[in-house]
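ARCHIVE RECORD
Type: protein–small molecule complex
Small molecule: S-adenosylmethionine
Source of inputs: curated submission
Record status: active
Notes field left blank by submitter.
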Amino acid sequence: MTIFEAYNSAKKQLESAGIEDYVFEAKQIIKHITGFTSAQVLSFYNRELTEFQLNNLTAILHQRQIRYPLQYIFGEWDFYRRSFYVGPGVLVPRADTETVVDVCAEYLKDRPSAEILDLCAGSGCIGITLAVEFADSDVSMVEKYDEAIRYAVKNIERNGAGNAEIYKGDIFERYLADRKFDLIVSNPPYVTENEMNTVSPETRFEPETALEAGDGGMEFYKAITENYKNSIKDGGMLCFEAGVNQSKIICGILADAGFHDIKVKKDLCGIERAVSGIK
Ligand SMILES: C[S@@+](CC[C@H](N)C(=O)[O-])C[C@H]1O[C@@H](n2cnc3c(N)ncnc32)[C@H](O)[C@@H]1O
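STRUCTURE (tokenized, with ligand):
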């Protein structure tokens, strides 16, 4: 089977499995099994796949039939122009979250040697990105679950983020709240119990503990604001990722806690995704 035939066959199988982005995925899978760049795939479209590559393709397509996440199959995924290890037990970094990083980066650009805290760090994609983008900053990341921490440790190493550290801790127990930071950022669990029934088949393979939050999805926003507002220096920033239709309530939580200059930034899909306030 040639690369071109494999690409067409993958597209068909992915489409019939109900995968919306089947064209994008087919391309990614062909690049993954051949090790080629997009340009090489185009140049060598007539080349025969080896038996190993063909077996790999078949295995990947079987996993996608049951909607096992492509990111877990590859074992890595790109976020903010860098690669992060991912797999079972950790949330896959989402493109939406890049909006949160943009807001933090804008804030940090005039603040040298910033002390940053990333709460609910998961793979470490937010904290590690900020650590690499702002090499003179000092980044602490807090995550409750060992499975996720294992990925964050590997991702620190992979991205050469020597100024970032991951700690095992619980935000409800105010872990690291006795320190003062210039920026606290968090993409916490925010999916309500009802919404959990409507998540994509792929998301069902991701840890529930990374997704679900009580109190109509507000549990973590309230706890982090309450537990960590005194851990932010005067003039420092608290920045959250928000779920769909949650930004207004989060703005209210920040306002009630005394934050000012509260701002909302939309993601590329037009969803109000990042909510920030200044102490
Ligand atoms: C929505 S995920 C975000 C992960 C990562 N920051 C990202 O943007 O991809 C939320 C993370 O919070 C962690 N978590 C859940 N409960 C926690 C708690 N009580 N304290 C600290 N982390 C917690 C989950 O394990 C998960 O990794």
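CURATOR ANNOTATION: DSSP finds ten helices and nine strands in the chain.
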